[in-house]
Every structure is written in C-alpha cells, then in structure tokens.
Design goal:
about 675 residues, Alkaline Phosphatase, subunit A, 2 domains
Length: about 675
C-alpha cells in the first residue's frame, strides 16, 4: 500500500517539530545526548499524538492547519525564550521564575535582552525554532478525518490508545535506565529535567506542580544523618581554637526551643503535620564555644552581586582580601546558582533553597519569617535597615524586604536611595554605603544595629560600553594579563571594595569597628561573563577561575566572609569542610546567641558537631567523605575516606528530605503554624 506524502506530513509534522526544537535547544545549551535523546523522542511522540488528537476537533482542514501553525509558533516562542534565558543566566528558568521575573527583566535589562535577541546568533536561533511552523505553513494542508475516509471516533480512540501507550513506555524506559527514574520522580528538578527529558516534558511537570501546589503534601524518609558523627574531631578543633581562653564551662546543651512537634502535628493536618512529624525525628545540634561569640555586636550583611572567590584579590580588592583571609576563612564554600539573584537571596536571608524558583522569596511577603537574622536580632532590640541601590520594586523587594524583620524597613532606588546614589548602570555600591552610613545608621546612638545590603555594582555586562563601574575602575585593571571581559568584571567589584574600605574607616573613626561583624556572600557565580553557558563552554569564567569549569561544584564554588577586626588579633579560624549558603543563618544565630531551634533549618551551625553537607536543587551533594552527582548516580569519595556501607543512599535520602522541608516551609508559611502571627 502506497502512503501518500501529504498524509506523512500531517501524521508526523507535530512530532518532527517537537524533536527539531528539542534538538536545537539541547545542541545550543547543555548537550548530553545519550540516553537523553531516547527519552526526548518517546515523550515528544506521546505529546505529539495527544496534540494531534486535540487538533482533530477542528472540523475542517483549513482550521486544523491554522491550529497546527499556531501551536508550532507558540512552541517555537517558548523554546526561543528558554534559549535566551539559558544564554543570559546559564540556567533554564521554570515557569514561576520566568513569569515572576519577566516584568522586572523587561524594565531593568530590556537593552541586554534586546541585544541578545538581535544578535546574529539570536536571530539564527529564532529562525531555527520557528522553522517547523514556516515549513508546515507552506507544505501542510490540515487533517479532516471524515474526508480522509476515517471514522472520526475510531481514529481518535486509536490516537488516544497510542499516546497513552507511548507515554507509559517512556516513563518505563526512564525508570529502567540508571538514576533517571529518580530525577523524573522524587528527585525532580527543572534544571535536570530539561537536560534529561526535554523542555516540553519539564514544562508539563511544572504545570502539574503548580496546579497541585495548594493541596500537596511533602513526603519524608526516616533518615537523619545530621546526627552522624562524621567530623566531630574537626568541629571540636575549630571551636577550641576560637576560644581557648574560656573561663566558664561551655554550655553544650541542645539548640532547641520549647516546641512539642508531635502535639503540633496532632493539632493540624496536611503539609504542616508532615513537617511537624519530620522535624520531631531530627536530632538538634548543640551549643559550643562559639555560641554567643558576637552577642551584642553590630551586623552588616551584604549579598554581593556576582561576587566570586577569584574577585577577592590583594591587588584589586584589598579590603575584601583582608576580610576573607583575616576573618573566619571558609575554604570550601558554595553558592549554588538556582534562580539568579533572588535565588541567592533566598539562601542568604532565609537559610532555605529556593525550591519555588523565582517566586520563592516573593512567597514570603506575607509569611511569618520568624527565622531571618533581621527578625532574630529585632527580638533582641536591634535597630535594623535593609538597602538596595537598584530600583526598590525590583523582584517585589518593596514587599518582601519590608517583611524581613528590619525595624526601620527597606530602602532602594525610588523610595530614598536616590538621595545618595546616581542613576547609571550599574549603580555604585560605594555611594550606597557612604550615603546610608553617614545619614541613617552610622551613629553610636543607633547601636546595636543590623544592616542588610543587596549590592549591584558587580552586575553584568562587563564591557566598557555597558558597565559604568568597569569604566570608573578600569585603570586599576588595565595592566592585568586578562581578557577585557575578565578585566571589566574585576573592575566592577572594585566599587564594592571601595565601599567596604569606607565603612571600615568610618567605623574605626566612630569607635564601632571592634564590635561590628561583616558577613558577605555572593548571590550566584558571575554568569554574565560568558555569552553562552554549558559547562565546559565557559571560557571567560574558566579564565577567571584558572581552570576549565566542568561541574556545578567547580562553577558554584565561592567564598563566604565573616570578619571583624577583633578576629585579626587571634590565630586564623579556618573552616575547610564543605559549607553553603544555607549554613549562614544557623551559624549567625549561634554566633549572636539568639534563641533558635536547630531542627528548623536545613543547614548547620558550622561550629557545631553536625557533619558538613552541602546540597543543591539538582540533588547533587558534597560531604566530608566525598561528592555525589545525582544525574549520573556517581559518588566520588575523597582520598583516604572510609565510606560506611549504605552511606550514599542514606545521605541522598537526607538531602531529599531537606529539599522537601525547604519546599514545605516556603509554600505553607510553616513558621506561622509554629509561632503564630508576627508581633
């Protein structure tokens, strides 16, 4: 029987379009074709059959053809959008993040986005993603089951049968191949899903997640490795070196609050009850020699835009270098890139991974944010301020940052910061630090104070025609043996260093320096250094780092700074175990002697007996014994490490629990359940 070419086009056009768009996206971003291509082919075939079934409801060929063209155009637009998102941010953004950040990006970075779209590569990719719609517009005729001699109901039943069968075959295939079954189900993340199963499947799972969010329950296994004695000796040695001269016996009681989680669980249901039951199973960490070490100190906490460990240099950023090398030294620190700047702030401010992408912090705007350092110190009578030198409404910070516990509220450009900061791109951190210290909190009468800054001077792009901070500080980097993009990046961070030098000098003049603690963490790695971004294709970032960036751990390593001048008067405190952004908040709560419950934060006080464990939303993790890559299921033990039987499986389960806990807290206002309405 001869098959008509027209029927081949009509039967397979949607499948061919989806596969084409997936291949273009994968080739242009992450690569990794096997066995991922098999999954993409099966899921795309099932999706195309479901779509073809739906489109047969259009009763004429003309209507059917028009519907197919529209569907291919919409699909091409979505794939184009994700391509440009990946090219700019080196990540795929899920639906909530794209929707939440679209307006802000259009206002704040419209020029950058337009330049990406209108570049030769951008125009080529738009043409490639739209090619199926253009080809079908010329070659297709549309389907009409009646005129083609088929019985419509029977034909549709066959389509439905085939679509369901292929979808089930795809899921079965995924479950049988290595660790991919976990990344499709209990260890799902949007990033790994796009790489492994394609954008279409990932978007389908995202829509399912969003529609089910209001009624979802988190699930936990009965694993708690936070009580495992993996690195007690190292932790004890570190803490002992901090206060060898302690005269009073050290209180080593548990860091807990008078909360009966089993009783709380019995009083509610759903996710809150699940969270209560989970927390009740956890072992708290203990107080230690560093508990209350900085009680009563002022705090200046800075989320530094795109800061990297390699931007901290003795020649270009001497103040940052002084703080990093003469304070508490964190030598194995990670700030995982998850949802851009707002994702980094989620970890820094809330001690939680941003499981809800770009909406994670926005969800907290009306929550009881009991465990932020702002709220904790506010309960101790601190004066608090939060500042940003870009548009104050960006990412809805006018809503979220007024709910962080800072008693004097939040100020950005547009509600006060314009008094001291010139409007340019990017704005000057030096001007922000000067203006706010001199005019708002830099008087001893305001002590103790608690100040938070979200900086912007280090933001991309780093060309001299695009970055005013790079232009301003170019002379300091002109002679360096680096490419111009790397020089521009280093020059932009000189502005933050100048601001820090100013603050330290003014604090010394006012007599406040010796009881003021600085905490500085990045929001993400410098993703704006490179035009594209698959691991292994980051030439400028690799130049900056001094090695080819091949893994997320290599890309997202960073440097956490905790410094005050008094630390320079003792032997250096070195934290060489793995730490990450979620460890900042519990460590600060312990250092400031706040009342807190260590079971309620997924990170750890780094001076406690708890074993180190850093983890990302991709379910990768690193401990004192080795590194686990969830995508491949590979565990790489550290040299000489003795890995107990079942350790990898138990730690992976623990990581999944912690991620689920982050999701539960962010989406259900869990602390309101525990502590009631905020005071």
């Amino acid at each position: 029987m001869r098959i008509k070419p027209r029927l081949l086009i009509e039967h397979w056009c949607l499948f061919a379009a989806l596969v084409w768009q997936e291949l273009v996206l994968k080739t242009s971003t992450t690569g990794e074709f096997w066995p991922q291509l098999l999954f993409i082919l099966l899921f795309s075939l099932a999706a195309s059959l479901f779509a073809r079934l739906a489109l047969t409801l259009y009763s004429t060929r003309r209507a059917n053809k028009l519907a197919k063209v529209v569907l291919m155009v919409v699909s091409g637009a979505v794939y184009s959008l994700e391509y440009f998102v990946y090219r700019e941010f080196k990540l795929f953004y899920d639906l909530p993040t794209v929707v939440a950040g679209a307006g802000d990006a259009a206002k704040g970075f419209g020029g950058t986005a337009l330049s990406l779209v209108l570049s030769p590569s951008g125009l080529l990719h738009i043409a490639l993603f739209m090619a199926p719609a253009i080809a079908y517009a010329f070659l297709g005729r549309g389907e009409d089951l009646v005129k083609d001699g088929e019985k419509p109901l029977r034909a549709r039943m066959f389509l439905l049968r085939d679509a369901i069968a292929i979808q089930m075959a795809a899921i079965l295939c995924v479950s049988l191949v290595g660790t991919f079954g976990h990344s499709y189900t209990d260890q799902y993340s949007f990033q790994t899903a796009v790489t492994n199963f394609g954008l279409l499947t990932s978007l389908r799972k995202e829509v399912s997640h969003i529609t089910m969010r209001k009624g979802f329950n988190v699930s936990f296994t009965d694993r708690d490795l936070r009580s495992a004695p993996v690195s007690e000796e190292a932790a004890a040695e570190l803490a002992d070196s901090a206060q060898a001269e302690v005269e009073q016996p050290v209180d080593r009681g548990p860091n807990v609050m008078p909360l009966d989680f089993e009783a709380l669980a019995a009083s509610t249901e759903g996710t809150w009850a699940d969270l209560d039951h989970y927390v009740a199973t956890l072992t708290p960490s203990s107080k230690n020699e560093m508990t209350g070490r900085f009680a009563g100190y002022n705090l200046i906490f800075i989320t530094a835009e795109a800061l990297s460990a390699e931007a901290i240099r003795p020649d270009t950023t001497p103040t940052l270098y002084r703080m990093a090398t003469q304070g508490i030294q964190f030598l194995d620190y990670y700030q995982f890139d998850t949802a851009g700047t707002t994702g980094g702030e989620c970890g820094n401010l809330f001690g939680l991974l941003p499981t809800e992408g770009g909406t994670s912090v926005k969800l907290t705007a009306d929550h009881n944010n009991y465990f932020t350092i702002g709220n904790a110190l506010n309960r101790l009578g601190y004066n608090g301020w939060a500042f940003h030198n870009n548009t104050y409404t960006y990412y809805d910070r006018d809503l979220t940052h007024n709910n962080l516990g800072y008693s004097n509220g939040y100020m950005g450009y547009g509600n006060g910061m314009e008094q001291w900061v010139e409007w340019q791109w990017p704005q000057s951190d030096l001007e922000m630090l000067q203006g706010t210290f001199d005019n708002l909190y830099g008087d001893p009468s305001h002590e103790p104070f608690d100040v938070y800054y979200m900086s912007v001077s280090g933001h991309s792009d780093y060309g001299l025609g695009e970055n005013k901070m790079a232009v301003k500080n170019w002379d300091a980097v002109a002679g360096l043996p680096n490419s111009d993009p790397v020089k521009g990046y280093l020059a932009s961070h000189i502005e933050l260093d100048k601001g820090l030098a100013y603050l330290v000098s003014r604090l010394e003049q006012t007599g406040m320096a010796d009881h003021t603690l600085f905490v500085i963490s990045a929001d993400h790695f410098p993703y704006g250094l490179d035009d594209d971004g698959p691991l292994g294709s980051l030439p400028n970032t690799s130049e900056l780092y001094g090695y080819e960036v091949l893994t997320p751990f290599q890309r997202d390593h960073n440097r956490l700074i905790i410094w005050t001048p008094t630390l320079e008067q003792q032997e250096p405190l070195v934290v060489d175990t793995p730490t990450s952004t979620v460890d900042i908040l519990p460590t600060l709560l312990n250092l400031f002697g706040c009342e807190w419950d260590s079971r309620l934060l997924p990170g750890r006080d780094v001076f406690s007996e708890k074993p180190p464990l850093v983890f990302s939303l991709s379910y990768d993790w690193k401990s004192a014994l080795g590194t686990y890559y969830a995508g491949s299921g590979e565990f790489v033990p550290n040299e000489g490490a003795q890995v107990p039987e079942g350790y990898v499986e138990a730690t992976s389960a623990d990581v999944a629990n912690r991620i689920n806990y982050c999701r539960g807290v962010l989406t259900t206002d869990y602390y309101r359940h525990l502590f009631g309405d905020p005071a």
